[in-house]
Design a protein that fits this description.
The structure is a homodimer of 208-residue chains.
Chain A: H1 9-26, H2 33-39, H3 44-51, H4 54-74, H5 82-99, H6 101-107, H7 130-141, H8 151-170, H9 180-194
Helix pairs in contact in A: 3-4, 4-5, 4-6, 5-6, 5-7, 5-8, 5-9, 7-8, 8-9
The first copy, chain A, binds a DNA duplex (30 and 30 nucleotides) through residues 1-7, 32-34, 42-46, 48-49, 53-54.
DNA-binding region (chains A, B): 32-51
Protein name (chains A, B): TetR family transcriptional regulator
Keywords (chains A, B): DNA-binding, Transcription, Transcription regulation
DNA sequence: GTGTTTTCGTAACGGTGTTGTAATACGCTG
DNA sequence: CAGCGTATTACAACACCGTTACGAAAACAC
């Protein structure tokens, strides 16, 4: 009927791959559609016909990053010690973030900054912490965590601590004379220990 | 000697104030120097003679935000229960972040994104967690925390958990069926409890 | 060979931060 | 009081961005 399509799946992958490379080592802000199109020897129109907009391109990149992240966390196989599984998931979390800081930044970027089109759909990052919830649930059944709190709550606290310490490092807000790397695991273990006997045993009940 | 200066301290404050207002409710990305200059009825040159660049302006804004943040955390007066002081500092942390999300975002933004000029100097955010370290130190003396870890390490874990949970909320990565608001304090208390008896009492020593 | 239709590259639009340049407005001098 | 010197400012140009309108290109139908 008309001229043959060159904005096909192959070009889509090439664009995605090149964009991933740029974002990987220079960040999402350093990604220019003009430069990207020139690198892949096409025009900016290709990005718009294949991804809709720059936000759409970043959204596809986001999907890919989340997939890798979920794979990395799911690769932590359960052992007979669920509490230790939680720690190892936390370590894998940190490992991924340190290895791919810019992809990690895309994962946890502000909602407003990115994906203004499909902001209705929930972000899939939250799906990646399912293995953590499962580990906590197994730990509760094994008596390693108190049953006073839902496993989701305990998992969220671990998730928050991992994300917080990793974010401090990646954003350059690490205390100067104190390396997070050296106490990350100890902090996680302290938290796990704190959930053991149910919360609020020592300092609880005062406020709230 | 020449025409009178209008790019003086007064204009500097007006620019800073107007920029703060814009950043406060629309974020740093929505701040345009042209719009800012028009609002204050001057030219963009004023920003460059007073702040050097947009990054310089944001850096001044950063200083201001850090000052407010430090004030808010220092306003938590020590009581006879240091462990509870730690919790209350954590709650104040969250309160500030939720009340001023965009200022909080400036505080913990990527180093690369912002302040490319004065990136040599250490960031002052780390200074704001001094009250937390002090509270932990008092708690150790009172026997509420184990002495196996430096107070800086314990404080950093609390700092990380607060920052992590708050960041998850602000970036829109909160689990859908689970409000952080409802378990934030419980998580902090669990962590404090976990540091009580020295770390690693239950799940320790397995890895590492 | 002409028409039609789909597709794509180019160029333009409105916007940004930044910088070069020319006009301004005063103090000093004659 | 006129005019110069100069510090200081406003304006316009520059290079770049994401996005979009539009005309050219290409393959099929007749």
């Amino acid at each position: 009927m008309a001229r043959p399509k060159t904005h096909d799946e192959s070009l889509r992958l090439r664009l995605l791959h090149r964009a991933a490379a740029t974002v990987f080592d220079r960040g999402a802000a350093a990604l220019s559609l003009r430069q990207l199109a020139a690198d892949v020897k096409t025009s900016t129109t290709a990005v718009y016909s294949l991804f809709g907009s720059k936000a759409g391109l970043l959204s596809s990149l986001y999907q890919e990053a989340v997939r890798l992240f979920a794979e990395r966390l799911a690769a932590v196989r359960p052992t007979g010690d669920p509490a230790d599984d939680v720690i190892r998931i936390g370590l894998a979390y940190r490992e991924y973030a340190v290895a791919n800081p810019h992809l990690y930044a895309i994962l946890f970027a502000d909602r407003g900054v990115q994906c203004p089109s499909d902001s209705g759909r929930p972000r899939e990052v939250v799906e990646t912490y399912r293995p953590l919830v499962d580990a906590v649930r197994r730990g509760q059944r094994a008596g390693q965590f108190g049953t006073a709190s839902d496993p989701e709550v305990i998992a969220l606290s671990v998730w928050g601590m991992a994300h917080g310490l990793v974010s401090l490092v990646l954003s350059g807000n690490e205390p100067p004379e104190l390396a997070v790397a050296g106490c990350y695991e100890r902090a996680l273990r302290a938290l796990v220990t704190g959930w053991r006997g149910g919360e609020g045993s020592a300092a609880g009940r005062a406020a709230s």
